[in-house]
Design brief:
Order of helices and strands: HHHEHEHEEH
Mean pLDDT: 89
Largest sheet: 4 strands, mixed
Shape: elongated
CATH class of the largest domain: Alpha Beta
Strand content: 5-15%
Low-confidence stretches: none
Number of helices: 6
Helix content: 55-70%
Radius of gyration: 18 Å
Distance between the termini: 34 Å
Structural class: alpha+beta
CATH topology of the largest domain: Glutaredoxin
Strand order of the largest sheet: 2-1-3-4
Number of domains: 2
Oligomer: single chain
CATH architecture of the largest domain: 3-Layer(aba) Sandwich
Length: 145
């Protein structure tokens, strides 16, 4: 859990220090803007922008029952963030597994990526797709099953 929140927390701390220094130097306007930029970056890097994560075992069980894809991701991954934003409202149609919170999910990703934790890795009908095109996945999520 701490690992997921460390990058956003560091961005907030850095933003506070940088903005504080600029404020002490008499540049309150630019300091406020810079703090807002750091806070926005922290929000984007946080797990909050992703749908609620489930553990890998539960995701696999549910996916087997309803055929929805399972997306393995981790906070701070720009490719995961790209996939999440490009899916838009369709992102909730998949099960999301945070590999930093779930060792079984990380192990499953490593098993199909030659020992690497390459994310996003999407399992659709049991078949892995590493860093898939968001349009491809959105099309499968929006089509009726």
């Amino acid at each position: 859990m701490v690992r997921s929140w460390l990058p956003p927390l560091l961005l907030v701390v850095c933003g506070v220090f940088v903005a504080g220094g600029w404020t002490l130097g008499g540049n309150a306007g630019p300091a406020a803007f810079l703090l807002l930029v750091f806070l926005a970056l922290a929000a984007v890097q946080s797990p909050l922008v992703f749908p609620r994560s489930v553990d890998a075992e539960e995701a696999l069980r549910r996916s087997a029952a309803d055929g929805r894809p399972v997306v393995y991701w981790r906070p701070g991954c720009v490719y995961c963030l790209r996939l999440r934003w490009r899916l838009g409202r369709h992102a909730r149609g998949a099960y999301w597994v945070n590999i930093w919170r779930d060792p079984a999910g990380a192990a499953r990703v490593r098993a199909v990526n030659q020992g690497n934790e390459t994310v996003p890795t999407v399992f659709m009908a049991g078949s892995p797709h590493v860093n898939p095109d968001p349009a491809w996945l959105r099309e499968r999520l929006s089509s009726p099953a």
